[in-house]
Design a protein that fits this description.
By secondary structure, the protein is of the alpha/beta class. The chain contains 21 helices and 15 strands. The chain binds uridine-5'-diphosphate-glucose.
Length: 476
């Protein structure tokens, strides 16, 4: 009998990558693959012992991220973490794989599955002769855009000529209409990392090379589904045939739970933040489609003035609110920068929380629209739940996601970067009331469910992906 396949799943150490990577790990495990899920030591501790206990054929391990403690609170923490993981994690990963391979009862590692921004792991896999699959945590369109950053440079669009390009409308009015599979798109919507006048800017170089590295793995995994991004997927597949589109991941996972899979609850989540589940109880007391849910993900930072402007816009919308204000959403702030009058003005129609079970919130019938930063997971979770979006993208791939949500899928309304309370109130009201937007959102929800249901494209792709893991060990 062929040995059991063993996948080492290795996410970049942020919620936007850990969450979907854990979902992929669970799906592989459900398909019979032995899984080792690798966190950084810092996140392993932060998640807590219960979250990383593991169970039969599913283990948690950790490696150091190489960052010193002082760098963790630094303003350029993200950059520091990317430099440190990409330059210091290869040796610990090599050691971990050697240790796993020498552990009695543990099958030999047969595939390494890193997320984007962890391409050092692909190099380690190549060096050890182990197959690999890379997971790009954004949309297919954002991958295509990031892969074209070098070409944008060759064609003279990058680096930006001077700093005025950032503010004079250049990013909005320069339209790129030659990226395969993509509709004409403003330069600024391709990626935030191109907002630089420095050709050697770290963010630009790192993100371009990481996107292109993903396609050097044996296969590419995407949290999207074929109907959602048909054109850009066709263009990507023309160059990289082995792409598994298995989104929305949450829907695919729920298929199994609905079918009575016993194992899922034991690895239910891995939150780096303390989750508040009381908001779900509160949602149960609200009428259908009556609540505006507000959440800016795990990295977005607001100034106190932006927070106040959002607060007044939301209050003026007149709707009931569920607002998740992460403890560092306003640095050093917590809830403190909220105007006290806002709390009075929304008394009885506002639930404030710090970190909630977002997928559960979005799936709740009481939620009517989502004010979001358009991180890809949030965007995908909202599409899967059929919830219209009010979009305020800020960095990375969020502009691309916003463009598609508003202009391609017809499920969102875009806010200007400068937050103005009248616009927030107006867009929220429209997203809650527009029949057209609600119809589009319901349509994508149905298509997402179809993709994840038995026989659907994502369901079939997951089966093929698991088969690919098994076929590696068949050859051993
Ligand atoms: O209160 C909360 C807030 C968030 N989440 C979850 O955290 C994840 C957040 O991911 P995402 O929406 O993608 O936002 P970021 O955390 O900002 O994600 C980073 O990673 C993403 C995937 O690569 C990119 O698309 C984003 O631009 C980047 O900021 C989602 O699964 C949410 O469900 C919760 O469970 N509870």
């Amino acid at each position: 009998m062929a040995p059991r396949p063993h996948a080492v799943v290795l996410p970049y150490p942020g919620s936007g990558n850990i969450n979907p990577a854990l979902q992929i790990a669970k799906l592989l495990h459900r398909g019979g693959v032995y899984v080792t899920f690798v966190n950084t030591e810092h996140n392993h501790r932060k998640a807590g012992a219960d979250a990383v206990r593991g169970h039969d054929g599913f283990r948690f391990e950790s490696i150091p991220d190489g960052l010193d403690e002082a760098a963790r609170g630094a303003q350029d923490y993200g950059r520091g973490l990317s430099i440190s993981t990409s330059t210091r994690c290869a040796a610990p990963l090599r050691d971990l794989i050697a240790r796993l391979n020498a552990t009695p009862g543990v099958p030999a590692v047969s595939c390494v599955v890193p997320t984007a921004l962890m391409s050092f792991a692909l190099a380690v896999a190549r060096e050890l002769g182990i197959p690999s699959m890379a997971f790009w945590g954004g949309s297919a369109a954002s991958l295509m855009g990031h892969m074209r950053l070098l070409e944008l440079q060759d064609r003279g669009y990058l680096p930006l000529k001077d700093a005025s390009c950032l503010t004079n409308g250049h990013l909005e009015t320069t339209v790129i209409d030659w990226i395969p599979g993509m509709p004409p798109i403003s330069l600024g919507d391709i990626s935030s990392f191109l907002r630089t006048t420095d050709p050697n800017d770290f963010g630009l170089r790192f993100n371009e090379s990481e996107a292109n590295s993903c396609t050097k793995a044996g296969a590419l995994i995407l949290n999207t589904f074929d109907d959602l991004e048909a054109d850009v997927l066709a263009a990507l597949r023309a160059e990289y045939p082995c792409i598994y589109t298995i989104g929305p991941l949450g829907s695919l996972l729920n298929e199994g739970i609905a079918a009575g899979d016993a194992d899922e609850s034991s690895t239910s989540g891995l939150s780096l933040w303390k989750q508040d589940t009381e908001c779900i109880t509160w949602l149960a007391t609200q009428e259908a489609s009556s609540v505006v849910y507000v959440n800016f993900g795990s990295h977005t930072v607001l100034t106190p003035a932006q927070l106040a402007e959002f607060a007044w816009g939301l209050a003026e919308s007149g709707h009931t609110l569920l607002w998740s204000i992460r403890e560092n959403l306003v640095p050093g702030g917590g809830l403190a920068p909220l105007p006290p009058e806002f709390v009075d003005a929304t008394a009885g129609r506002c639930c404030l929380t710090t970190w909630c079970p977002q997928e559960q919130v979005l799936q709740h019938p009481a939620v009517g629209c989502f004010l979001t930063h358009n991180g890809w997971n949030s965007t995908c979770e909202s599409l899967a739940a059929g919830v219209p979006m009010v979009c305020w993208p800020g960095f990375a791939d969020q502009f691309t996601n916003c463009k598609y949500a508003c202009e391609v899928w017809g499920v969102g309304l875009r806010l200007d970067h400068e937050v103005r309370r009248e616009q927030v109130a107006g867009h929220v009201r429209k997203a809650m009331e527009s029949k057209d937007i609600r119809r589009s959102a319901a349509g994508w929800k149905a298509k997402a469910a179809e993709a994840a249901a038995p026989g659907g494209s994502s369901y079939q792709n997951l089966k093929s992906m698991v088969k690919a893991h098994n076929s590696v060990t068949d050859q051993l």
